């Protein structure tokens, strides 16, 4: 929605890595070697890939970073990268959800293996159990890391490594918080208002 309404490009770390590897850039080759060795791609490599991507013309109006930065060290590296071209962060948006609600939301979700339609045990169950409303498919899929235990450990990692970004971006004067316990339309409207102001 934000891409369409504001002419921004959404960049997620996973998509960036895959595209750089496919394009065979220097940073992409470095990322490929690390991933093939079964190791995590370093912050330096991600920053180099991001530098290349931000220089492309479609990013001229701005980008939405999704899933990056996740640590204060990454946020500092990102600020340094943007400063190279006289750019900066206009808004850092914190979508605030209770931990307990997060576990319910994530551990209940599944998708149709045939058409990709999303479902949820509590919020959007199919009319006939295990059968897709849209295409009639019966091969429902759940992500292996969407179980309650894994979600709980992902939340621990979030509180230890990522939550400090709230203080970091507050100190830079760009933090915007949204109560993300409400319905999707209300959250989308708030997000749109923030991005409109940030890109004005
Ligand atoms: Zn389906």
Gist?
The protein is α/β, with parallel strands linked by helices. The chain has a domain of 88 residues: 3-Layer(aba) Sandwich (Rossmann fold), CATH 3.40.50.300.
Overall description:
The chain has nine helices and seven strands; from the N terminus they run αβαααβαβαβββααβα. The chain has 200 residues and is α/β, with parallel strands linked by helices. It has a domain at 1-88: Rossmann fold, CATH 3.40.50. The strands form three sheets. Strands 5-4-6 form a three-stranded antiparallel beta sheet. It has a two-stranded parallel sheet with strand order 1-2. The chain has a two-stranded parallel sheet with strand order 3-7. A hairpin with a 5-residue loop joins β4 (109-112) and β5 (118-120). α2 packs across α4 and α3 packs antiparallel against α4 (43-54). The chain binds zinc ion (ZN).
SSE layout and pairing:
Elements: H1 2-6, E1 9-12, H2 13-23, H3 26-36, H4 43-54, E2 63-66, H5 72-84, E3 92-96, H6 99-107, E4 109-112, E5 118-120, E6 140-141, H7 148-162, H8 164-171, E7 175-179, H9 184-199
Helix pairs in contact: 2-3, 2-4, 3-4, 4-5, 6-7
Bound molecules: zinc ion.
Zinc ion (ZN) binds next to loops.
Shape: globular
Order of neighbouring strands in the sheet with most strands: 5-4-6
Instruction: Please identify the structural class as seen in this structure.
Output: alpha/beta
CATH superfamily placement of the domain at 1-88 = P-loop containing nucleotide triphosphate hydrolases
Overall mean pLDDT: 91
CATH architecture group name of the domain at 1-88: 3-Layer(aba) Sandwich
The CATH class of the domain at 1-88, by name, is Alpha Beta
Q: What does the main sheet amount to?
A: 3 strands, antiparallel
- Fraction of residues in helix: 40-55%
Bound molecules: zinc ion
Q: Could you name the CATH topology of the domain at 1-88?
A: Rossmann fold
- Radius of gyration (CA) equals 19 Å
Strands, count = 7
Q: In sequence order, what are the helices and strands, one letter per element?
A: HEHHHEHEHEEEHHEH
Low-confidence stretches: none
CA-to-CA gap between the ends?
17 Å
Share of β-strand residues: 5-15%
- Give me the number of helical elements: 9
């Amino acid at each position: 929605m934000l891409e369409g309404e504001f002419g921004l490009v959404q960049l997620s770390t996973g998509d960036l890595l895959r595209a750089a590897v496919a394009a065979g850039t220097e940073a992409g080759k470095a990322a490929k070697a690390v991933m093939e060795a079964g190791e995590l791609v370093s912050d330096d490599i991600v920053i180099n890939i991001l530098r290349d991507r931000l220089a492309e013309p479609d990013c001229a109006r701005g980008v939405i970073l999704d899933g990056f930065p996740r640590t204060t060290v990454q946020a500092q590296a990102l600020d340094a990268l943007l400063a190279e071209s006289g750019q900066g962060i206009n808004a850092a948006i914190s979508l605030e959800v209770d931990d307990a609600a997060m576990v319910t939301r994530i551990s209940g979700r599944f998708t149709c293996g045939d058409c990709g339609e999303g479902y949820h045990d509590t919020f959007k169950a199919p009319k006939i159990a295990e059968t897709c409303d849209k295409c009639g498919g019966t091969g429902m899929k759940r992500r292996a890391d969407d179980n309650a235990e894994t979600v709980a450990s992902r939340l621990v990692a979030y509180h230890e490594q990522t939550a400090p970004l709230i203080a970091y971006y507050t100190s830079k004067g760009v933090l915007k918080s949204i109560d993300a316990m409400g319905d999707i339309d209300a959250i989308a409207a708030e997000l749109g208002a923030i991005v409109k102001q940030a890109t004005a």
